[in-house]
Design brief:
about 350 residues; mainly alpha; 14 helices
Length: about 350
């Protein structure tokens, strides 16, 4: 086994693979096409001619990534993120389905618990939520027209997210050039009024990088899709804001798995403030694009309405996510003793079948 294979196997062991779908070859071809359509031209445009090798995964980690081994670059796409975004889009597609956000977040929480080797906790949670995805058996979830409509929305979010990760690759490759570029400096200047409002929050280079990656990825996505989308203006704009919300919840649930992480954490004040600043930066980028392309006041007003509505939705979602994490930590921790008679091996076997995992790498 060569060095590349060793590292890739290590990467997989830290993500925990899910069983591949029955049509795995079709999925790989689909993502090879997406990579060729989205990522390759974007990197070429920014003077990266040798495109990283694509690694397509289906894991509990969900997030995209990239890494460098020697002189080889690899770009990781985890298509389980698409399913996560898709489910959230379904849940918000009709007020009737909004209650299922609890189901989706409990499922996400158990996945993050398993990634952190919380076997007893994860097993107990799985055993007490056997019907958590029954809503996916309904006709509304499986309707062909619904699937196509939601896939179109989810693809747009996925494009934004993958391009954001590709921007981090630009930073890694051209760190000094990017930070000294006129675009990066203008972005930093434009962020100062937002930062001043939140002056109690520490802003570091990582925050500026995240905002720059948001800016570059959203602008490219707009250039490629805005004038051809079949979505309404309101739907189109809201998807970008919801993408940031979805990622925040995922990262928050990851942090909750640390034993030292107190569930009272002061509502994660700093992180939510930084999130709000990224949302403001996203709004500014969308606004500047629309203005540069002479879009009328009605469309710009729709963007502003969507932005404020998205902030309200984010506050509601974050409140639910925090409530769910607190409730699960209290209730499941009190129920774990009911399963003390089971061995660790039995619990792992149950979890693997419940979460449809390839194998156990812990």
């Amino acid at each position: 086994m060569n060095k590349d294979e060793v590292f890739i196997n290590y990467l997989l062991s830290n993500r925990i693979r899910k069983l591949p779908p029955a049509h795995a070859n079709d999925v790989y071809q689909l993502y090879a096409d997406k990579y060729k359509k989205w990522i390759s031209p974007f990197l070429n445009k920014h003077n990266i001619e040798e495109i990283p090798q694509l690694l397509l995964l289906n894991t509990l980690k969900k997030t995209p990534d990239f890494f460098i081994i020697g002189n080889k670059n690899f770009f990781v796409i985890d298509y389980s993120m698409h399913r996560y975004f898709y489910d959230i889009n379904y849940i918000f597609s009709d007020n009737e389905f909004n209650e299922y956000i609890v189901n989706a977040y409990i499922k996400l929480y158990m996945e993050k618990a398993y990634l952190k080797e919380r076997i007893d906790f994860c097993h107990c949670l799985c055993a007490n939520t056997t019907d958590i995805e029954d809503y996916k058996l309904t006709n509304s979830y499986r309707n062909d027209d619904t699937i196509q409509y939601l896939c179109d929305k989810t693809d747009l979010q996925e494009m934004f997210l993958l391009l954001h990760e590709a921007c981090h690759l630009l930073f890694c490759t051209f760190d000094k050039n990017v930070k000294e570029s006129e675009g990066f400096q203008v972005l930093k200047d434009n962020l100062q009024p937002i930062i001043k409002i939140n002056e109690a929050v520490n802003v570091d280079d990582e925050f500026y990088e995240e905002c720059y990656c948001d800016y570059k990825s959203i602008f490219y996505t707009l250039e490629e899709t805005y004038f051809s989308t079949k979505l309404s203006n309101e739907e189109y704009f809201s998807l970008f804001f919801l993408t940031l919300v979805n990622v925040y919840v995922l990262q928050f649930f990851e942090r909750c798995q640390n034993k030292s992480y107190n569930a009272q954490y002061n509502f994660e004040y700093d992180r939510i403030a930084l999130f709000s600043m990224r949302m403001a930066n996203l709004h500014a980028t969308l606004f500047n694009f629309l203005s540069a392309h002479n879009q009328n006041d009605e469309i710009i007003n729709k963007l502003t309405s969507v932005y404020y509505a998205s902030l309200d939705r984010a506050a509601d979602i974050f409140s639910k996510a925090h409530q769910i994490s607190q409730c699960l930590e209290e209730e499941i921790s009190n129920s774990i003793s009911e399963y003390e008679h089971l061995t660790r091996k039995d619990k792992i076997y149950y979890i693997e079948n419940y979460l449809l995992l390839v194998n156990m790498n812990i």
